[in-house]
Amino acid sequence: MQKRLDEMAYEEEGVVANIQEGIRTRVAGMGIRVGKKIKMLTKEPLKGPVVVVVDEADISLGIGIADKIIVEVDG
Amino acid sequence: MTKQNTLEKNNDLYFIYFLILGLFSVAFGIADLVVTLGGSEYSLGALEIPNDGFRGGWGGLIVLFAGIFYLSGVKNIQEIHQLAKLIMGSILIWIIAGTDIFAMITESIPGREDGGWFNTAQGFLGTYAPPYTPAIFLLPFSLVVIFCIHKYYKKQEME
Amino acid sequence: MKILLMGNPNVGKSVFFNRLTGANIIESNYPGTTVDYTKGYMRLESKDIEIIDVPGTFSLEPKDKAEEVAVKMLHESKGSKVMCIIDASKVERGLYLALEIIEQGFPVVIALNMWDVAIDKSIDIDVKKLEQILRIPVVPTVGISGEGISTIASRLEDARPVKVEDIVERTEVIKHKVNTPDERWTLIEGISKEIVTFGEYQHTLKDAIGDFTVKPATGIPFAIAVLYGFWSVFGSFAGFFTDGFLVKIFDEHWLPWLQTVFPVGLGNWLYALIVDVGHLENGVLTASDNCFESFGALSSGLFVPVGVVLPAIFIFYLMLALLEDIGYMPRLAVLIDTVLHKIGLHGYAIVPSILALGCNVPAVGATRILETKKQRFMMMTLLALFIPCGAQIGIMQDVIPGSIGFVMLYLIAGYFIFGYILNKIVPGKTPEILMDVPPYQKPMYRNISRKVWMRTSGFLKVAVPFVILGSLLVNVLYMAGTIDWLANILAPMFEGWFGVPRETAGPLVAAFLRKDLAVAQLSAIEMTKYQMISAVVLVSIYFPCIATFAMMLREGRQAFLGSLAVLLVVVFTWGGLLHLLWILMGVV
To answer: How high is the pLDDT of residue C48?
Structure first.
C-alpha cells in the first residue's frame, strides 16, 4: 500500500517509492532516495515537521517536503 | 526461587517504588501550583512550598511532569523505553532540585547589602537549614534510577 | 601546495582542523560574502603547509551562500589536495561529495570520521575494500580523541587524482558514465552495498531518550524543564556576581576612587560627563553614592556592561554552548519549528532568539545561520524589537521585579504577532525544515570554551565601547539641553498616546543611547504600576541600543531601513495598545 510520508503512522516502516521532482536533489543529500528503507518516528503537532529514520540516522522534514514523498508501506 | 521469579519480583518492587514516587511527585507538583495560585506561602514542618510565579508556577508544573513521567514508565521497567521515561522523570527532578540547591549556594556566599564581602558563618549555614522545597525531598529518591540504569547495563552485558 | 579540508556540515571538520593546526590559525571572511572560514598551517614532513577549513557543503551544486563559497574556494585551489571528512555513520552522503571532488580531478584522501559513533550504531565499514575500489587513501578517525589523524596526515602524500570511470569499472555496479546526480547516487549505493554492513542495532538508553526528547508528548514537557533550568541558573549566577560582589566593588571602591582621583570635581562638566552627574538634594548638588545613578561614562558606562551584563551573558552562553554540544538544540529546533514556521521562520531561529536574551549584538550576528534574506531580516527586526537583552532584564529585575513576567509575555506576544504580519508582507518563501537530528554526545570542554569565548568577546569588543560612547553622548545631549528640548516637543505624544507621565519623555528619548539606564531613570519618576509597565515596554521595543544599531547597519542598509520602518509602526501600535488595555481595565 502506498502512503504519503506524512500519512504514515508512528513507528511504521516502508520503502521510499517516489519523490516529487522539485525536492529530489535536496532530500537525496540527506539520504532519502527511492528504494531506501524509511521509518516514521514522530510527527509534531499543528502540521509541524516529521522525524524519520533512514540508515539509522534521524532526519526531520517539514510537512511541505514530507507530503511530496510517497512510501510503500508493509502490510 | 528461579531466576525468572527473582526478576519478576524485582520488577514488582520497582513497580511499586516508582508508582509511589510518581504519585508523590504529582502531588507535590499540584501542591506547588495550588499554593502559587492561592498566593501565600505554605509551610508544613520541614517542607516549604514556594508561591512565586516562577519557582511555584513554572517549577511546580515541571515537578508535576516528572510525576507523570514516572507513572507512565512504571510498567515493565526492564524495557528500555519505559526505563527511559523513568530517567527523564528523574532528570526533571534533578533540574528543579539542582537549581533550587544552586540558588541556595549562590545566596549563601555573598554578604548582605550592608554587610562585608562574604556572609557570616552563621548566615552561610543558615541558608541551608530547612525548610526545603518539595523537589529537594524528592531528590534522594529520584537517584534510585541510576541504580536501575546500572542493573540494566549489567543485564545487557550478561546477555 | 595547499590542503583543503572539505566535508558535509557537522562531521567534525573543525575539530579535525584544530587537531591538525595547533594554535596558529586565522579566521577570515570570504570577500563579498558574510561567510567565514579558517586558515592555518600544519606540519607535514618538517614543512609547514597551508590548510584551509572550507565551509561545510553537501555537494558541489550549492544551495546556499556558504556552499557557493566552498565551491568557489575549491575552484580557486587547483593543484591542492583535498582531505575529505566523512561521517562514518552517514557514509553515502559523504561519498557523494567526495565523488564530485574526485570528478573535478583533485587528489583526495578520505577520513571516515566519528568512527566511534558508527561502532555504537553497529555500522561496520570495510575500509580496505573501499580503498581498493576508490584507489585513494581511506582512514577511520575519531576527531575528538585524535585517533587516526596522524595516520591520515601522513597518507596525504599518497593521494593521486583518480578517474571516475575507473571506479565505475571496479564496482561493476553500473555500466555507463556518471554525469547526473541520480547516476552518482546509483554508483554510491552500489559501493555502499559492498562496504557497509549494518549490524543488529538495538536501541540504547541514549537513543530512547533521544527519541523521547523529540517526540512532542514527552519532548515539550522536557523542553519546558530545560528552559526553566536555563533561566533559574542564569538568575542565580548573575545575582551572585552582580548583587553579591560587583555592585559592592563598583559602588564602594571604583566610584569613590574615580571621584577622588579625577582632576576636576563635582559640578564641572567634564566630571559630570565621565564620572558623576550628581543629583540635587535640598537644592544642593551632591555626589552619587552608586555607579548606576552617577551616569558617568566611566562609572555607569563601565558598571552596566561589566558589572551587570557580563556575568549574565557569560553563564548564558555557557549553558547554551553546553546544550548545543550535547546535541539538544536540533531537537528544540524541531519542536519549536511547528510554531516558528507559521511566522515564516526556521526552527533554528530559536538560537539567535535565545542568544538575544543575553545580548542582542552576537544575536544579530547569529542571524547568518538562517538561509534566506527574508528570514534574516525578520529575525533581526524581531529580536531587536521584542527580545530584551541581559542588561534590560537585569535592570528590570531590580526596578520592577513583580511585573517582569507580564512584560516578557507582552513582548513575546508581540514577537509572534508581528512575526506573523511580517511573514505575510515581506516577499520571499520560507524553506521547509530539513535537518539531521544527531544522537546525543558527551560535551567537549574545548568546543564549549571556544564558543563561549567567541560570543562573549563579541559582546566585549562591540557592546562595551558602544555603551561607553552612548553614555558620553547621553550626558552631552542632556547638558546641551537637547534631550529636554526633544522631550518637551514629544511630551504630548507620550502622555496622550502612550499614557505615561511627561517626565518619562527625557529617559525615553535617551533610551536610544542607553536602554538600561532609561529603565532606572524611569524608576525615579512617580507613576502608577501600569504606567511603569507601559514605560518599560516602550523602552524595550523602541530603538535597539546603539551597539545593536551598529550591528544591524552592518548587515545591509536596505534591511536596516526596513527594520527602522517596522520599528516605528510597532512602537506606535504595540505601545499604544497597552495604553488602550489599561483604559479598558479602568486603571488609568
So the answer is: 83
CA nearest neighbour of C499 among C579, C582, C587, C580 = C579
pLDDT for the residue numbered C113: 93
pLDDT for C23 equals 66
Q: Greater confidence, B10 or C420?
A: C420
A and C make contact (3+ CB pairs below 8 Å): yes
Phi (first) and psi of residue A11, to 5 degrees: 70, 0
Nearest CA-CA partner of C351 in C505, C155, C364, C338: C364
Report B:85-104 residues touching C (Cβ under 8 A).
Answer: 85, 87-88, 91-92, 95-96, 98-99, 102-103
Does the beta carbon of A15 lie under 8 angstroms from any beta carbon of chain C?
A: no
Compute how many other C-beta atoms are within 10 angstroms of the C-beta atom of residue C57: 25
Task: Specify the pLDDT at position C246.
Answer: 85
Residue A56: which of C89, C96, C215 has the nearest Cβ?
Answer: C89
Please, which residues have CB within 8 angstroms of residue C583's CB and are 6 or more apart in sequence?
A: C499
**Interface contacts (A, C; CB < 8 Å):** 100
Please report the DSSP string for chain A in residue order. Answer: -EEEGGGPPTT-EEEEEEE-GGGHHHHHTTT--TT-EEEEEEE-TTT--EEEEETTEEEEE-HHHHTTEEEEE--
Where does residue C385 fall: left (phi above 0), alpha (psi -120 to 50 degrees), or beta otherwise?
alpha
Three-state secondary structure call for residue C337: helix
Looking at beta carbons, which residues of chain C come within 8 Å of A47?
338
Is the Cβ pair B95, C221 closer than 8 Å? Answer: no
Where are the alpha helices (H) located in C196-328, listed in sequence order?
Answer: 205-212, 216-241, 247-249, 255-261, 269-274, 291-294, 300-302, 310-326
Which residue, B36, B65, B63, is CA-closest to B51? B36
Q: Is the pLDDT of residue B52 over 70?
A: yes
**What is the end-to-end Cα distance of chain B in Å, rounded?**
20
Any alpha helices (H) in C343-441, and if so which ranges?
Answer: 350-358, 360-366, 373-386, 390-399, 404-425
Alpha-carbon span C122 to C375, nearest angstrom: 39
* Count of beta carbons in the 10 Å neighbourhood of residue C55: 23
**pTM: predicted TM-score of the whole model, two decimal places:** 0.86
Span B14-25, pLDDT tens digits: 888 899 999 999
**What's the gap in Å between the CA of C408 and the closest CA on chain A?**
25
Closest-CA distance of chain C to residue B9, Å: 23
Q: Which of C213, C225, C237 is nearest residue B65 as measured by Cβ atoms?
A: C225
- The three three-digit cell numbers of residue C455, written as one number: 560570543
- The better pLDDT of the pair A50, C173 is held by A50
Nine cell digits for residue C177: 558514465
C-alpha cell read off for B128: 541551608
Residue B117: other Cβ atoms inside 10 A: 11
Residues of chain C whose pLDDT is less than 50?
Answer: none
Residue among C201, C339, C434 whose CB faces A65 most closely: C434
DSSP class per residue in B12-80 = HHHHHHHHHHHHHHHHHHHHHHHHHHH-S-EEETTEEE--SIIIIIIHHHHHHHHHHHHHHT-S-TTSH
Q: What share of chain C is helix, strand, coil (3-state, %, to 5)?
A: 65, 10, 25
Compute the distance between CA of residue B39 and CA of residue C561 in angstroms, rounded to an integer: 47
Question: Position of cell 523513568?
Answer: B86
Q: Is C255 left (phi over 0), alpha (psi -120 to 50) or beta?
A: alpha
- Please list, residue by residue across A30-68, b when 16 or more beta carbons sit within 10 angstroms of its beta carbon and e when fewer do: bbbbeebebbbbbbbeeebbbbbbbbbbbbbbbbbbbbb
pLDDT at B67: 93
Could you say which of C339, C347, C437 has the minimum Cβ distance to residue A58? C437
Q: What is the DSSP letter of C369?
A: G
- Chain A CB contacts of C201 below 8 Å: 56
Identify whether the C-beta of residue C273 lies closer than 8 Å to the C-beta of residue C297.
yes
A chain contacts of residue C335, beta-carbon cutoff 8 Å: 44, 48
